[in-house]
Amino acid sequence: MNLSLLFAIMRVAGSPCADIGTLLLRRRRIMGKYVLEVKNLEKYYGQNKVLDKVDLSVRKGEIYGLIGANGSGKSTLMNILFGNSVIAATGGYSGDVLFEGEKVKLRSTTEAIGRGIGMIYQEFMLIPEMTVAENIKLTRENTKGILGKVLSPELCFVDRKKDNEDAAGVLEQLGFEIDNSYLVKNISVNAKQFVEIAREVNKGDLKLLLLDEPTAVLGDEDAGKLMKVLKELAEKGTSVIFCTHRLHEICQVCDHVTVLRDGQVVSDYGRDELDMRTLARDMIGYDVAAVKKEHQNREEKEILKFEDFSVYMPGEFLDGLNLQVYEGEILGLTSLSGHGKLAVGYGVMGQFPVKGEFLYGGAGVDVKNVRKTIENGLFLLPDDRKNMGLLLEHSVRDNIVFSGFYGRNLFQKKAAGIFPVRDRKEMERCVEEQMEKLEIKCESAGQKVKELSGGNQQKVCIARAVLVAPKVLFVMEPTRGVDIGAKEKILNSLVQINREQGTTVVVASSELEELKRISDRIAVFCEGKLSRILPPDATDEEFAFAFTGEEGKDGR
Amino acid sequence: MDGKIKLPQIIITAFMLALFVLAGFLGMDIPELVSGSFTKFVMNGVLVLAMIPMINAGVGMNFGLPVGIVAGLLGMCMAIQFRMTGITGFLGAVALSVIPAVLLGLLYAKILNMVKGKEDIAAIFIGYSFIPIMNFVWTVIPFTNREMLYPVGAKGLRPKISLENYFGNVLNELMVLKLGKISVPVGLLLAYAAVCLLVYGFFKTKGGTVMLAVGENEKFCQLSGIRIDRVRTMAIVLSTVIGAAGICVYAQTYGFVELYNAPLSHSFPAVSAILIGGCIGRRAKISHAVLGTYLYQTIYLLSAPIANAILIPQMSEIVRMIITNGIILYAFLKQERRRRQ
Ligand SMILES: Nc1ncnc2c1ncn2[C@@H]1O[C@H](COP(=O)(O)OP(=O)(O)OP(=O)(O)O)[C@@H](O)[C@H]1O
Ligand SMILES: [Mg+2]
User: Fold this and answer.
1) Domain count, chain B
2) Which residues of B touch A391 (CB under 8 A)?
3) What are residue A110's phi and psi, to 5 degrees?
4) For residue A474, what is the nearest residue in chain B, using CA coordinates?
5) Which ligand 1 atom sits nearest the alpha carbon of residue A245?
6) Are B89 and B166 in contact (CB under 8 A)?
């Protein structure tokens, strides 16, 4: 068993703040003058003030944490610092940004990159039709041949071999294994994240790295690898602004933390003052009560059955699954990233080639016929929300009712007794109810989803799934990118439809802690195979062994 | 940012106005040109509307417009065969073309659904390969009205069938309003407005909104239980039917039904028009089609006489080509860039 895997197990098993990484990698810090200073920053979107007199200063070689509830303005701040075009297009900002002591007003990302600023977005910015290596080396390709020397560097042939080597090198440095030649559109979400990270890390002259929730899509193991890379970068003198909803990561790596609430800086802490509870309280203003499902003992009536079910999903292979799902239960699926937990749902919904049998209520299901599957009462909420989970150009309202209205013919009434027309009142009522329940932060239900903050977009997805009221609901990473308060609301929603409507819920998540709280059983996968099914109160040790696919001590 | 008129539209409108001014300086009959611009506008307007359903469903540009046009030609030929005249003749021709349009549209859709992702290029080739087949059909089709057949031999349809005795200009002459020296073809404009309204209304219905959603995000729709291929088929059939109606409107203004290779000449102008109207990406609005058609057709209309008047016959044609094709290129570039982002 290699060392990083050991870390992962310990991290999964142990308390989140147990900071083994820091103990092993004692850092010597070369902290100097401020690389970045932000003074009195204000930003409006229309009438909506999203940043209000924000001040921060980031030193050289410092890892600076930025936290806040969903919609508090973190991404907006990052976008300003990276000269993103949305900012100028929506009326610019006021206040000063000083980079290396010099006042700057970045108008484009190219300018920002030119100054040595890099950014990893909350949503991916990769070119789907290019390979992993091409994406990593994009605009910094190695070149060969004399043509370029004679004419212009733009005309050089790209030295693919060298590029591939370089890319492989960075990926190895990050400790992530993936074939360089895969097209990005075919790789899993966490792999995409590593490609993004690799692209930034590969830049030679990186002075400031902006990370907007880079770990949201990563499992604990991969997040750990990223933390390690961040520390190495910081040691070499790169400053990092790190934004996340996982407070233990903040406690683990940050030298300084600023908490934003509704666009204002509410507090500031140095490394020694960090404490998860205080941070949580500062972020959302109240103490969060953790959702816990009470476990009922009901008869085990099979509703779904997988027989030797394989899914050929690139980067997330599922191999010969045999599993029964019982009616009315919440089943958790977990694994280290890329080990198969996500493939189950995508396979059922015919998104990738499958082999083997999938039975629903005892009858075989043709997974290719997605419409039929959904009519029968199955529904899937994908983890890749930007590409599969949202209609970005549509309003919050349209998104929330879409699947119910079009897929299941809900929200309809009969006009003149015959014609089905949409029941706007009922729609509006449901939308409002969901927006209130999940606290979706937006100007109105008519606002376009693309204008919402990441976490609020996630809540829109959940609301949509809840309104479909399926018999079996597959959800993937339901709490990705949401703040700690919203996380409980989402978990609560899932527990509630399970309890009140009897929906069978299959949750694939990399956060074991949340699965333990809401699931009746937890299926752990390793290398594409089901390794163990554990009760939620199984010991950490048992889970740790299940993750690595090894037999427990009792030889089960 | 979406609703606003953007820079390219402003430039091209300015170019059009400049042409009007120039025409005025050259002593041309401005009122007549303006009147002409209205007719030209509606004449081509419906054909341009045939782009909208396909673009909005994410199928791409309707380069296969000849498919719809052929359906319309079949409808008109049948109407002539049955000697239908006047406004009923026109409406009859449109109604008769619906059946071939639906059938051909289904076939067209079947092919396009098989080549997902490369629809544009496939549609172009469908258009081009369909015409020779139809050329054969036109020569053997058993119509008997002598006015449609080759004068000699009385077999095979002639390339240009006059509508004079049938429904030529029926819409153009319907309710013409004189505003000073400008004559406004109210009936024609109303007919066009009605079609626009129909298309607009369709996109407000359940079927229409689903089409927009499919155009925006197919995966999302599939996972919501929507049969993507069915929605796309519906869009393609709709585009084909509108195309068929479009050629009927065109032919009645022109006064002739043009068979054989003529349908090929309509798809590029129609694509250009909607792009000039500001449709970039996967969302086409009625306003794009309307504005685009007017700008494109009016510039086309003005440039020829102006070029003749200033005795460099090629010049204005060249300028027009540069501007319109430049806009098309711009639109495509912009579209690509958006997709990358
Ligand atoms: N393009 C836009 N147009 C209008 N409003 C916007 C736009 N982008 C963001 N907003 C609004 O600005 C506020 C701050 O959004 P931002 O994305 O910065 O939040 P965030 O702190 O990153 O949240 P999250 O943790 O959910 O990612 C939100 O209320 C959001 O609705
Ligand atoms: Mg954000």
Assistant:
1) 1
2) 213, 216-217, 220
3) -60, -45
4) B223
5) 25
6) yes
Characterize A50-59 residue by residue with b for buried, 16 or more Cβ atoms within 10 angstroms of its Cβ, and e for exposed: bbbebebbbb
**What is the pTM (predicted TM-score) of this model?**
0.81
- Assess whether the C-beta atom of A441 lies below 6 angstroms from ligand 1: yes
For residues B128 and A426, what is the distance between their CA atoms, to the nearest angstrom? Answer: 50
pLDDT of the residue at A329: 92
Comparing CB atoms, the residue among A387, A392, A407 nearest residue B225 is: A407
CB contact under 8 A, A406 and B210: yes
Task: Report helix, strand or coil for A216.
Answer: coil
Give me the helices (H) in B141-285, please: 186-202, 206-216, 218-223, 228-254, 267-276
Alpha helices in A25-125 (DSSP H): 74-81, 85-89, 109-114
Cβ distance A250 to A257 under 8 Å? yes
CB contact under 8 A, B224 and A388: no
* pLDDT tens-digit series, residues A444-480: 999 999 999 888 999 999 999 999 989 999 999 999 8
Q: Are A122 and A79 in contact (CB under 8 A)?
A: no
- A283, A65 Cβ separation under 8 angstroms: no
Q: CB distance A406–B221 less than 8 Å?
A: yes
Task: Judge whether B74 lies within some domain.
Answer: yes
Ligand 1 mean position, distance from CA B56 (Å): 28
Cross-strand partners of A268: A258
Q: How far apart are the CA of B7 and the centre of ligand 1, in A?
A: 28
Q: Please tell me if the CB atom of residue A354 comes closer than 6 angstroms to any atom of ligand 1.
A: no
Please report the pLDDT score of residue A344 as a whole number. Answer: 94
Ligand 1 neighbour A68 (Cβ under 6 A): yes
In whole numbers, what is the pLDDT of chain B averaged over residues? 86
Amino acid at B169: N
Q: A467 CB contacts (<8 Å, ≥6 apart)?
A: A400, A401, A403, A404, A410, A430, A434
Which domain does B108 fall in, by range? 7-328
Six-digit token pair at A109? 């990302």
Instruction: Categorize the per-residue pLDDT at A311 as very low, low, confident or very high, splitting at 50, 70 and 90.
Output: very high
**Alpha-carbon radius of gyration of chain B:** 20
- B336 assigned to some structural domain: no
- Which residues of B are less than 8 Å from A371 in CB distance? 225-227
User: Is the CB of residue A36 less than 8 Å from the CB of residue A55?
Assistant: no
Between chains, do A394 and B221 touch, taking CB under 8 Å as contact? Answer: no
Give the tokens for residue A265. 């800086």
Is A133's C-beta closer than 6 angstroms to any atom of ligand 1? no
Mean pLDDT of A479-494: 90
Instruction: Pick the residue whose CA is nearest to atom 13 on ligand 1.
Output: A71
**For residue A217, how far is its CA from the centre of ligand 2 (angstroms)?**
13
A84 Cβ closer than 6 Å to some ligand 1 atom: no
A37-67 confidence digits (pLDDT tens): 999 999 999 888 999 999 999 999 899 999 9
> Per-residue pLDDT tens for B206-227?
889 999 999 999 999 999 999 9
Topology alike, domains A25-35+45-116+205-284 and A302-554: yes
Q: pLDDT tens for residues A356-407? A: 999 999 899 999 999 999 999 999 999 888 889 999 989 999 999 999 888 8
Q: Cβ–Cβ of A408/B225 closer than 8 Å? A: yes
| CATH code at A25-35+45-116+205-284 | 3.40.50.300
Residue B2 domain flag: no
> Domain segments of chain A: what residues?
25-35+45-116+205-284, 302-554
Q: Answer whether A256's CB lies under 8 Å from A48's CB.
A: no
Q: How far is the CA of A68 from the centre of ligand 2 (A)?
A: 9
- Tell me how far apart the alpha carbons of residues A17 and A298 are, in angstroms, rounded to a whole number: 36
Instruction: Name every residue whose Cβ is closer than 8 Å to that of residue B165 and which is 6 or more positions away in sequence.
Output: B85, B147
**B213, B226, B340 ranked by CB distance to A127: nearest:** B340
Note whether residue B341 is domain-resident. Answer: no
CATH code, residues A302-554:
3.40.50.300
